[in-house]
Write a structure and sequence with these properties.
The chain is of the alpha+beta class and about 230 residues long. It contains 4 helices and 6 strands, in the order αββαααββββ.
Length: about 230
Amino acid sequence: MNLETGPFTIDLLHLVLIASVIFLVITVLRTHAATKATTEVDSPKEVGGPQEADADTTVEPELEPEPEPEPELEPEPEPEPEPEPEPEPELEPIEQVSSAPVVEVVNTDSALQILSLLQKEARFIDFTQEDLTDLSDAEIGAVARLIQAGSQKALAHYLTLAPIATEVEESAIEIPVGFDPAHYRLNGNVVGEAPFNGTLIHRGWRVTRCELPKITQGHDTTILAPAEVEL
């Protein structure tokens, strides 16, 4: 085609040329961009700006730092032995206080002595142990008179007796507040608290003197009267 043939032909060529130029520019730009990206990847960068890599320079590998030696562990101290516990003090047993009255052991020697003396002076044990069924009242009365005289003699010799109540029997009597129950035994209808008014039935007795003979060592007080043998 001739460029001078008309305006249409010229315009088409211009368009083809412009398109070719644009395509070439785009291709150059793409090539330049790819080359630049490849260079940035292959070339190392340092702080402060880019630095060209020397192809002949050998990059030595960085040595890893040697691990620091672990500190030696000090041996654990041996545990101190625990002190032995002190023995607990022994507790003394607590004496239990009984509410019941304490009964003391009674020495029976004195009682046996009195029985022996009454037997010796008044045949008291013989009288109490005798079968009085076949005896009349008069005979028993006569025997009782002898026993009463002998017993009175024996008791008066070794003991002194006194009545607890000084009033006459069968008379009125007043029992005061705080009286000793060992001295007075109340009978009948006992209601309320002292003082009590009543009738004296028996005056009671107490010992004010006791002088029994001494017992020799080895003497058996259970023998109240020896057996008598006539030869």
